[in-house]
Amino acid sequence: MAPTSMNALPRMLMMLGLAASLGVAGCSTFYEVEDPDLGASVRNMVALQTSYPDQGAEGLDGEKAEKILRAYRGDTVKPESVEKTAIIQL
Q1: 60 Cβ contact partners less than 8 Å away, ≥ 6 residues apart
Q2: How confident is the model at residue 16 (pLDDT cuts 50, 70, 90)?
Q3: How many CA atoms lie within 13 A of 62 on its CB side?
């Protein structure tokens, strides 16, 4: 081997070790202060979807079902609002 290639091996090993340690350090996480509201939206959705059978109600009541249905139908696109025809060329 040439003398320059023998000097290059330790340098390459050192660079490889440095790159590996930076890669491992980049995957670690550390939070000093955790947000107290972290996960609040999940807890809210679980509470909204939880049934309480001891209250005597089974299924949906009429008013709640009507509101859900109106909101669902109100969010759809009306066919007359489409102004252009989509043309797909192959």
Answers
A1: 68
A2: very high
A3: 0
| Measured distance between the N- and C-terminal CA atoms of the chain, rounded to whole angstroms | 59
Q: Read off the amino acid at residue 3.
A: P
User: What residues contact 54, with CB distance under 8 A and at least 6 apart?
Assistant: none
The residue written with tokens 């249905």 in the block is 69
pLDDT tens across 39-81, in order?
888 888 888 877 776 776 666 778 888 888 888 887 666 666 6
Rounded-to-integer distance, Cα 68 and Cα 5, Å:
73
Torsions phi, psi for 17 (to 5 deg) = -65, -40
